[in-house]
Amino acid sequence: MFKRVIIILIVLGLAAVWPADAFVAQSRAETNLSIRLIRHPDVHPDLERDCRAALREYGPALADRIWPFVHQQPQVDVHLVTTAVFRDTLGGRVADWGVGAASGRTAWIDCDRVQGVGRTVPYVMLHEIAHCLLHQGMGNTRVPSWFHEGVAQQVSGEWRFRDTVSLMMDGFVPDLQGLEGRFPGNVQWADRAYRASLLAVETLLDWYGEDVIAEIVLATRLNGDFRVAFAEVTGTEYEEFTTRFARSMRIRFGWLVTLTRWPTLFVLMAVGFAFGAIMRIRRTRRRLAEQDDPEDDEIEGDWQVTDTDPDIEASE
Q1: Which sequence spans correspond to the domains of the chain?
Q2: Core vs surface per residue 58-88: b (16+ CB within 10 A) or e
Q3: Domain 13-261, what architecture?
Q4: What is the pLDDT of residues 17-72, one digit of tens each?
């Protein structure tokens, strides 16, 4: 009994002097994902092999970014299926352009059509697993779609520089408060919404640190309200963040938007043509100058010399 008391006192003493975040970080780093891959017979076995390799390489880091719970293990069943099975299973619940879906502990991936959207099956799998972890971590709390989709893209490594450039070339970044519900059915508008969501989450990480996603997940579970949790973790009201984000995007990429508008492009093209014309005139004048006096003087000198040639004088 006395030994137990001593052990408890030692543990309590260590907990008092050791940084709390050290225990949390260690526990989160050791989080194990319980993933079960279920491949349809018509799906090639190589895809399952690639998914397992991606889970081994990226799964622990993905869980560490999202899952804040020490004593709970996330569990996900991932179904690798054909287009026919995907549509039969989900019906009209997924847009025509969708190749993946997630709900609670289950994810479905349309392996036939993934290539057509410029992604790979392993990346889509990681994307949908991230959704499942957010669903399980935040419970039934209503969470803005931009946060869900932005986090899923960020932790699955789907970001590409051209995604941001393409969004800027469109002329504006969609308002985050307009991306809180279901994304548009139109593929172009949906694509813009996805890219804006990723940019918003990247901004969250940049402003508030790498642990902000997991901290918001935990606070949302405890508070039962995403906006309250967001303000508690970041120290910024949700509406204030969305406004600041929109303003920062205008400042950060406004020059690119300006350059891609027609009036600016017309002026730049006119200046470019004028500069090209001036340079061509200068080159032409330089060539003409190089063809002038020196050669003519040399020719005149030669003729003067031949005037004194004795043969010419004799012939006269």
Answers
A1: 13-261
A2: bbbebbbbbbbbeeeebebebbbbbeebbee
A3: Orthogonal Bundle (1.10)
A4: 333 333 233 334 344 679 999 999 999 999 999 999 999 999 999 999 999 998 88
